UniProtKB/TrEMBL annotation, chain A:
Keywords: Cell membrane, Lipoprotein, Membrane, Palmitate, Signal, Transport. It comes from Paenibacillus durus. Belongs to the bacterial solute-binding protein 1 family. Pfam families: SBP_bac_1 (PF01547). It comes from the Bacteria. SUPFAM superfamilies: Periplasmic binding protein-like II. InterPro entries: Bact_solute-bd_prot1 (IPR050490), SBP (IPR006059), SBP_1_CS (IPR006061). Residues 1-21 form the signal peptide. Coiled coil: none annotated. This is ABC transporter substrate-binding protein.
TrEMBL record, chain B:
One of its GO terms (biological process) is transmembrane transport. This is ABC transporter permease. It comes from the Bacteria. It is found in: Cell membrane. SUPFAM superfamilies: MetI-like. Residues 72-261 form the ABC transmembrane type-1 domain. The chain crosses the membrane at residues 9-30, 76-98, 107-128, 140-161, 182-204, 238-261. Belongs to the binding-protein-dependent transport system permease family. Its main location: membrane. It comes from Paenibacillus durus (Paenibacillus azotofixans).
Length: 431, 276, 305
């Protein structure tokens, strides 16, 4: 009896394993015969806003038109939600070898997917010139161990929004030249002055998740360090370096002195209840609902004497290792990230473009306030760490910062990030 | 006289408690009727529960953005199939475990209780492999079949059936009815509240399905209402008014179901024959 | 005579055993559909998870899965976070189970009567169960807001200073407990209510003729009649409590300082976010064994009473 169970168990695990071996590829990359003799490709991307989705639909339609009889792309939009559901679906598809030919992925996952060999390098399909047109942070986030895997469709950035009325009340003029950008101390003084009568000095998202790494890793970079080394092999001496401790101390000070609301309403800044807001271009469309709000943009604050930097990162597209048509799949990638696509997307969703050339026609970025975003994106931005153990890093880092903001011991929390990360890396990625 | 006093006391207690429990539902409904800017502006005061600026805009724009009725229909369809087939499969199983003596029944019962403990997160991936091996990905089967048999339901049926006095069952079997007939004609009519409760609890748990449908469905044709709602969470800036409108809209079917099932909660069992 | 009696006896025994055999057959046929489905879609996946527990299995590298014996278990027993999560899970369970079941029974008694508005009250108590957890989380995070939350305003009224609630490692779990009891009591109330509906009215009538008051009826009729239902409610409340996931996942993500990290959250994080399916499976197995142990000692305890 027991043997029977064990055997049938083995049988099924084999079955599951085998069906993984490529016997059935539910997602049609083996189909091949969609329209006449055209190569049929599947493309997964997470659902986004309606306008963003529409740009993709339009661009893919145009691609199919232009490649009639040769390549036909079928785009499938996957529900994403706030959680990691899209990533979980990718995991399941990897385990059962049902990945699509082309897939979208969040920037920090690229290294992870590249290290796991579920996406393939695209160097041979992009000319040097073409690659150089991407803003540096896109190349940084898309590369792993010297190879380029996945270009981004747009960029993102974090800036400091400010409430003009509140600034005027206190006689504060936020800088509009990058060399005058506020230091942490300048920003702290502003918060100190403006924080009273139910108004907070600043507002920042506090999602206990990806935002923490996305936004605050830059405080480490500004201090001349990072949260892991360049190769991504260790966090010891980086995340918990003296500069790191200083950065974390700064955040803790803001929280201690209640200069921001630790569980803010999403519309605190819009309602005039926060003098500044650490946020991104995605916030701008929502400001329209608040006609009383007069807002401006200034640079992401830097450490006094430190490096001027800003967060960056975006969704990118890559070719799955399961595809039978890498060349055609790469054509799709090139199309969906070319100058036209990048420009159209940037215009539709008011996020900065991923290509330098795209900014040529995006004239609104030549003037304030958007000029600030462009300067950050094309000049000083840094991508998040490129490491296959990123999921552990970001989770532990976010947990540590969340704890630090409510008073946990700074050094101990950061040491814990370092040791957890190093163990994970050693166990799973060091070869 | 004493009776009215008890009644009054019950009413007062119930009113106070109800207020405490109904707040989020009320907040959700009221917020769905408010203009976007008002929802969070009112959040930290009692105004958040008062519909001062009523508008149906949130509903209108929510319906424009996703095929809500189609997703709603999908959800109602597959969840109902799970629950209805579940009632049959689980109730006879629970009945056998409660009232029939056979070798291994104790073992089965213990195993069922033990299996309830397995967290869904830990079998999610292996279950996906099984369903994938059956070629069920992207079909209704994947959403329905794995969840028909349900340990909670079986155990609940079993516990309730235990309380049915053996005498009634024996008298039925003396009458010569077969076991299935005894079950259908004696047990089921006596157990309206249990069936109703199992149905609604099972329905609620699958109504909230999110993770599993994402894994096993890709296209739009099988998308359920929970996945549809996610549309409203993905667009920054997020419009909470629309979120509240869709959430309100998806809560309504459960409340309706609850009201429909209430008729099975007929006060007390009056039949004289079943005094234990 | 002798033989006749024997024959009679034999016949009696054989009807008896025939009946036994028939009952066995019916029993098996009744349980088969459910058991088969459970084997395929619950037992089998779980056994696969048990197998994975002995492997190193990165979800993104299914091709590189390999057996590592008890490595995951060795790692597990030296993982401080595992012990912390285990303790948090047990703490939550020990408090939530009696409190929530008690509140549920009370609510069920409140609405098990002929009040005209009883359906309204039932819906009210049940409404947190059917309301989306997202709504509940948004609302409670703002109620618990350390700076301007409604609960803190209420405390001010009584001269108590601001409390950090979810933002404090000593208060976060208790805040989640309080909210969970409130959120889920309606669920168990429904089950108790179904149980109360099954109690024959005659019992109450007979006892009130004997001069029993309401309290005595509760003590001597209602509570004993609910024995099987109570066992059920306590069992499922325990099982749901040990699987605590959604509330900390949405409201605290396990923090601050891991004070709300539960085993289910740890399993999810390791298995999905970190993609260490092997390690996550090992945690699941140990978790399973621990809970089985607890449930059976609890069952014994209930039986002894």
């Amino acid at each position: 009896m027991k043997k029977g169970i064990l055997l049938s168990l083995l049988a099924v695990s084999l079955l599951a394993g085998c069906s993984g071996g490529g016997t059935q590829n539910a997602n049609s990359s083996s189909g091949g015969q969609g329209e006449g003799s055209a190569v049929e490709l599947t493309f997964w991307r997470p659902q986004a806003s309606e306008v963003e989705d529409n740009v993709y639909v339009k661009r893919i339609e145009e691609f199919n038109q232009a490649n009639k009889g040769k390549i036909h792309v079928k785009m499938e939009v996957i529900t994403r939600g706030n959680s990691f559901a899209y990533e979980d679906k990718i995991n399941a598809a990897v385990a059962s070898h049902t990945l699509p030919d082309v897939l979208a992925m969040d920037g920090p996952n690229i290294a992870n997917y590249a290290a796991s060999e579920i996406i393939i390098p695209l160097d041979e399909y992009f000319s040097k010139e073409d690659l150089d047109d991407f803003v540096p942070s896109i190349l940084q986030q898309g590369s792993y161990q010297g190879k380029f895997y996945a270009p981004g469709l747009n960029e993102s950035s974090v800036v400091l929004f400010y409430n003009k009325k509140i600034m005027a009340e206190h006689g504060i003029t936020p800088p509009d030249k990058i060399e005058n950008a506020w230091t942490w101390d300048d920003w702290y003084d502003v918060m100190k002055k403006t924080s009273k009568d139910g108004v907070f000095g600043t507002n920042m998202i506090n999602d206990k998740g990806e935002w923490m790494t996305y936004a605050f890793e830059q405080l480490w970079i500004s201090g001349g360090t990072d949260i892991v080394n360049k190769e991504g092999t260790t966090a010891e001496g980086f995340v918990n370096s003296p500069q790191g401790v200083e950065a974390a101390n700064f955040l803790q000070k803001l929280a201690n002195e209640k200069l921001f609301n630790i569980d803010p309403k999403p519309t605190e800044f819009e309602e005039g209840k926060a003098a500044t807001k650490l946020g991104g271009p995605w916030n701008i469309p929502g400001f329209k609902n608040y006609p009383d709000l007069e807002w401006g943009i200034t640079y992401f604050p830097k450490k006094a004497g430190g490096i001027q930097t800003a967060p960056s990162g975006s969704w990118a597209v890559g070719v799955s290792a399961d595809t039978k048509h890498p060349k055609e799949a790469a054509e799709v990638i090139k199309w969906i990230t070319n100058k036209d696509s990048s420009t159209q997307l940037a215009r539709a969703i008011s996020m900065p473009a991923s290509r330098k050339s795209a900014f040529e026609s995006l004239t609104e970025y030549n003037e304030l306030p958007l000029r600030i975003i462009k300067e950050q994106v094309t000049g000083v931005s840094h991508a998040r760490p490129v490491t296959p153990a990123y999921p552990v890093l970001t989770q532990k880092f976010a947990e540590a910062l969340t704890d630090i903001m409510v008073g946990a011991d700074v050094k101990k929390s950061l040491d814990n990030v370092a040791s957890t990360y190093d163990e994970e890396y050693k166990r799973n990625f060091a070869e | 006289m004493r009776n009215t006093r008890t009644k009054l006391l019950l009413y007062v207690l119930n009113f106070i408690m109800s207020l405490l429990f109904i707040i989020p539902l009320l907040w959700m409904i009221v917020s769905s009727l408010k203009p976007e800017n008002q929802i969070f502006a009112d959040l930290s005061s009692l105004k958040s529960l008062l519909p001062l600026h009523i508008t149906l805009d949130n509903y209108r724009s929510a319906f424009e953005r996703i095929p809500m009725l189609k997703y709603l229909f999908n959800s109602i369809f597959y969840v109902s199939v799970i629950c209805i087939s579940g009632l049959g499969v689980n109730s006879i199983c629970g009945y056998a475990l409660a009232k029939l003596r056979f070798r291994g029944s104790e073992f089965i019962l213990v195993s069922i209780i033990a299996l309830m403990i397995v967290p869904f997160e830990s079998i999610l991936m292996p279950l996906y492999l099984v369903v994938n091996a059956l070629h069920w990905v992207n079909t209704w089967f994947a959403l329905i079949v794995p969840f028909i048999a349900n340990c909670f339901s079986i155990f609940m049926f079993r516990q309730f059936f235990m309380d049915i006095p053996n005498e009634i069952l024996e008298s039925a079997s003396i009458d010569g009815s077969g076991p299935l007939k005894t079950f259908a004609s004696i047990v089921v009519p006596l157990s309206g509240p249990v069936f109703a409760t199992v149905f609604i609890l099972d329905f609620i748990s699958h109504w909230g399905d999110f993770m599993w449908p994402i894994l096993v469905t890709t296209g739009e044709s099988l998308r359920n209402i929970q996945l549809g709602i996610q549309t409203f969470f993905t667009l920054p800036p997020i419009f909470y008014g629309q979120i509240m409108a869709t959430l309100t809209f998806t809560t309504v079917p459960i409340i309706v179901l609850f009201l429909l099932l209430q008729k099975y909660y007929v006060q007390g069992i009056t039949s004289a024959g079943i005094k234990g | 005579m002798q033989t006749a009696m024997n024959a009679h006896k034999r016949e009696h025994i054989s009807t008896f055993s025939r009946q036994r055999r028939r009952e066995t057959l019916v029993g098996y046929s009744f349980v088969t559909p459910a058991v088969l489905l459970l084997i395929f879609f619950l037992v089998l996946p779980f056994l696969l998870a048990v197998v994975f527990g002995f492997t190193k299995f990165n979800l993104l590298r299914p091709d590189k899965i390999h057996f590592t014996g008890f490595d995951n278990y060795k790692l597990l027993f030296t993982d401080g976070l595992f012990y912390k999560s285990l303790w948090n899970t047990l703490y939550f369970t020990i408090i939530v189970v009696p409190v929530q079941s008690g509140v549920a029974l009370m609510l069920a008694l409140l609405v098990n009567n002929s009040l005209k508005l009883r359906n309204v009250f039932r819906i009210a108590y049940f409404s947190p169960v059917v309301t989306s957890m997202t709504v509940i989380a948004i609302l409670w995070i703002s109620l618990y807001n350390p700076n301007e939350g409604l609960i803190n305003s209420a405390l001010h009224f009584f001269g108590i200073s601001n409390q950090p609630f979810l933002r404090s490692s000593s208060q976060a779990m208790n805040s989640i407990i309080f909210m969970s009891v409130w959120q889920a009591a309606g669920y168990q109330m429904m089950i108790f209510l179904a149980g109360l509906q099954g109690i024959s009215k005659d019992l109450y009538e007979a006892s009130s003729i004997d001069g029993a008051n309401k309290l005595q009826q509760l003590r001597y009729i209602t509570i004993p009649s609910l024995y099987n239902v109570t066992v059920f409610v306590l069992t499922i409340t325990t099982i749901q409590a040990v699987k605590l996931f959604v509330q900390p996942y949405i409201m605290t993500n396990g923090g601050p300082e891991n004070s709300t990290r539960t085993l289910a959250l740890l399993i999810y994080q390791q298995g999905f976010q970190f993609r260490n399916a092997g390690y996550a499976s090992a945690i699941s197995v140990i978790f399973f064994l621990i809970v089985v142990l607890i449930s059976f000692s609890m069952k014994k305890f209930l039986r002894d009473k």
